[in-house]
Amino acid sequence: MVLTLALALGGSYGAAMATPELPAEQSIPLRSMSAARPADNGSRLLTAVQGPGRILELTVHSAAMGRAVTVEVLPAADNSRPAPTLYLLNGVDGGDENGSWTSSKNWFTTTDAVDFFAGKHVNVVMPVGGTASFYTDWRADDPQLGRNQWTTFLTEELPPVIDSAFATTGVNAVAGLSMAATSVFQLAIEAPEKFRAVASYSGCVRTSDARGRALVNTVVLGKQGDPANMWGPPSDPLWAANDPYLRADELRGTAIYVATGTGWPGPLDTLAGPGIHGDPVKLADQIVLGGMLDAVAHSCTLQLRDRLRELNIPATVDIRPSGTHSWGYWQQDLHNSWPMIEDAITD
Fold first, then answer.
1. Which of the four pLDDT bands, split at 50, 70 and 90, describes residue 97?
2. What are the C-alpha distances in Å from 343 to residues 122, 137, 186, 255?
3. Neighbour order of strands in the sheet with 255-260
4. Residue 41 is part of a domain; what is its CATH number?
5. Distance from C-alpha of 4 to C-alpha of 6, rounded to nearest angstrom
6. Phi, psi of 162 (to 5 degrees)
7. Model's pTM, two decimal places?
8. Cα 242 to Cα 190: distance, rounded to the nearest angstrom
9. What domain count does the chain have?
């Protein structure tokens, strides 16, 4: 049971919302891509093309990973003045499980994020990829999952490219769901100067205790990866070094928003709910599997809440009385956390 729960907790499981129609391509003002400068290690912008609607599709070379990474950007509504940046991270499949972000479940296709941020003064950046990587720096290349150096990419390589290519203030926040709901804390701990705010939806911050290792191992194994290539054997100190619960004191000064359901069926867990389309099989999957997953996330969130209270670190902890591990609730979480994020990243 633990293994089944762990595998699903790593990704965007349960019945997803119906993929909305992306807006037709339209011309929008763009800051010249020639303004983009490389990161200190040589990572650089390779291509920038117009995507659906206001979305820009970037290809960024990561020197740390030795390959190109697809990055989708929704520029701030007003590009005549600097804007902060929100990085949105996906779950275990990295937002491209079907080989293309436009045909896969992710923040831009499966929630109303594109419309929600349409008039807001913030650049929204969604990296694509990172399957079962926990968006961390792996100690070794993996035969199945390749070279993963996502902490380096998200803290050292991508930000200078985004900051120079777009009108940014250099102030950032990061939000993630499921697997990435763990990652956002570790990113803020590793690079506190990069992220003023973190928002975590339906995640589990424990990674180095027995249950945490079981969860992490099964997420990685579920995509045919080898957990030893990530943080080594269980005795390796990298496991503790990547456990946000153990390093929670380093989150002091970071604006924090954490949300989860309890696993009990909620208002979106009905035949008329997002992504269900009247299908009782989809609904059963969302209620049973999605319910178990958010029950796990609920337990982890209570631990984190108590730890932050013990350390006297302020945090907004939104524990819904019901709700499953599914996109409809993550959309609500994004909406609910935005005021805190906006306040933290707006000078």
1. confident
2. 12, 30, 21, 9
3. 44-50, 56-62, 67-74, 123-128, 83-89, 168-177, 195-201, 255-260, 316-319
4. 3.40.50.1820
5. 5
6. -65, -45
7. 0.91
8. 9
9. 1
